[in-house]
Amino acid sequence: MTSNQAQNIIDKFGGVSELRAALENTGHNLDRAAVYRWTYPTARRGTGGYIPVGKWPLIWKAAAVAGVELTFDDFLEGRPAEDFLFGLDG
Asked: Which of 1, 15, 34, 70 is deepest in the core (most CB within 10 A)?
């Protein structure tokens, strides 16, 4: 089963293009395919619907600059923080 965490956060930015633009505005350039991969199941070489933990600070900064309201719950999406802190990094 695939999470909706990545898609929900992408939607808060208004889509993949808008998220990429927000990231570029903070000096971080990710290609379109990398962002889409977050929404793909692992069987399709995606991250199972999760944004890798290492990208979270970039997303937070992009949200602050773009005026997108995010909460920690948007990232956890009902999963315990330990899942992310101990290696589930996609």
From this structure: 70
